[in-house]
């Protein structure tokens, strides 16, 4: 016969808190901090200045040339920056992981510190070097006696692209370095002893191991580049208008809050869609 329950066991069962109760506090915090402001943005996007509820602001924004131009600029900058980060990050991570040199471990640790830097700090450093009155132009004018230096690309889309690649490359290198640390060095030694050239070793041994980290890091960089605001603002590239910059322009400069909220909703939808794709790719490749 099973032992009889003690007199205190029913009382303990009665006092047991249901599991969903513990989920209420974080859900409440999430609702107040994130969902409620998001709901206000969505509500404002369908609330034209004339009053009432209408999707007319969406039609007006989608029909505007400024929105289409900002969307195109945002996409090509994000894709270009992601490709640049993947190529540069892969090369630098291989050098740090497989080429012994003094201070290699310190450089690897610096990558972790670099991830904590704000984006505007990197842009400011580039301005000090390549700005109109930066170091590179200063050296050029001192040597040649010219009135102006040749480096004026920071205020162009190429300057924004350079700044984004510089800032976001460590976000690709970090997972790559973690993946390379798990790679058995015996595989490289065996491939080398069998006569495989470095390019073949990279293509057939290192690259397959790096694909999950490349997919995860590249997807993350793509999402962050789509939402980058500080780099575009601090480079002073007046001809470069991305979706975040368009939100700022509509809300702060033009006081057109419905249009700003429409652009924000579109930006959020793209970001959430890409994040979902990032999660799906991460699961499939095992990252």
From TrEMBL:
One Pfam match: BPD_transp_1
Topological relation to the membrane, as annotated: Multi-pass membrane protein
Originating species: Streptomyces sanglieri
Name of the featured protein: 2-aminoethylphosphonate ABC transporter permease subunit
Coiled-coil region(s): none
Cited InterPro entries: AminoethylPonate_ABC_perm-PhnU (IPR017636), MetI-like (IPR000515), MetI-like_sf (IPR035906)
Keywords: Cell inner membrane, Cell membrane, Membrane, Transmembrane, Transmembrane helix, Transport
Transmembrane segments: 20-39, 75-101, 113-133, 153-173, 210-237, 257-278
Location(s) in or outside the cell: Cell inner membrane; Cell membrane
Domain (ABC transmembrane type-1) ranges: 71-278
Domain of life (superkingdom): Bacteria
Family: Belongs to the binding-protein-dependent transport system permease family.
